[in-house]
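Sanity check record (used in CI):
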Amino acid sequence: MPDHKPYKVMFSAGEASGDQHAAHMFSEMKKLQPDVQGIGMGGEKMKWAGIDVRYDSSQIAVIGVVEVIRHYAEIRLALKLMQTLLANERPDLLVCVDYKEFNFKLATYAKRLGVKVLFYVSPQVWAWRPGRVKQYGRVIDMMAVIFPFETAYYEAENVPVRYVGHPSVDKVRPQCGRSEDFARFGLTADAPVVGLLPGSRTGEIRGMLPVMLKAAETIAGRVPGAQFILPQAGTIADEMLNDYLQTSPLKITVVKGQPYDVMQCCDAIMTTSGTASLEIALLGVPMVIAYKLSPLTYWLGRLLVKTPFIGLPNIVAGKGIVKELIQHEASAENLADEMGKILTDAGYAGQMRENLQSVKACLGQGGGSKNMALLALEMLFTD
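Expected output for Lipid-A-disaccharide synthase:
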């Protein structure tokens, strides 16, 4: 790399997954260009990576129309603060990580200031509002997509696009072997292990954890000796989780900070939709995806979303390889029925594992965070 003044990169990540993606990307950038500086909006992982986080995004990590309306004041304040930071700091590059509508507005403002914009994780234009491709094309300098099929949507509109690979391919690495994890978590190998992944947002915990706990009770009655384990997201407070867990008669083993070690111990997992479902797929663990939204958000989604699936494993596969239980279907009984089928029907579970391997193959060999770092440095060094 040629000599230059230290470059300043501003990151905008509004949710836990974006915080993690930005952190991994910046860590790779530091390896390649040690004097690069990072500032912006995010969470703890970005701080640990060395980014100067000026706004903690944990208060605005919400999803759904109603939820966004409820937090509109906080979101608007965050946007104003980030716009002011852009104007005052004038970074050499703005990296918008997911959090689509917020970051679209921020990118629009950056464009007016003459700041280069790299958008990381494409809006789901293949699911709804494909016209957004042109809108994003007017306010960004490069779209970095994480699924190979996404590039065609941008190329068709002559919007600069680069497929960088999905960051989860590199990230999903258990720290220990499965047998060692069994010993560490107090699990036994002679009884099935059921995972509960109720999400990383407080709204998801409120909506799905009680249902999953009720389903677990039913499973325990049908599958003797079944063990239950829950990987606690760093964004969820102990007090909130304990409020729900203390109402359950079951022993639920809670593990902090080791989601992939927990996942690899499981014979079947109940999970919310989102990145977690893809991470489970990469580890080849059979699952059921369940999700509940506010009635208004769900109704609008039914009107606008064109894809038949919400689960990433099904979207990547292009077919329904994992059962999805959405809204009224996301009942404890339905969850228990599907989990019971996975745990007792070897042929059914085996076919699901085989299909999940095809999802892993579709996502390639990884290197997403390093590819993003290289792309960002390429943009920094290009006038």
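The chain has two domains: 8-165+367-381, 178-363. If this sentence no longer matches the regenerated tokens, the check is flagged for review.
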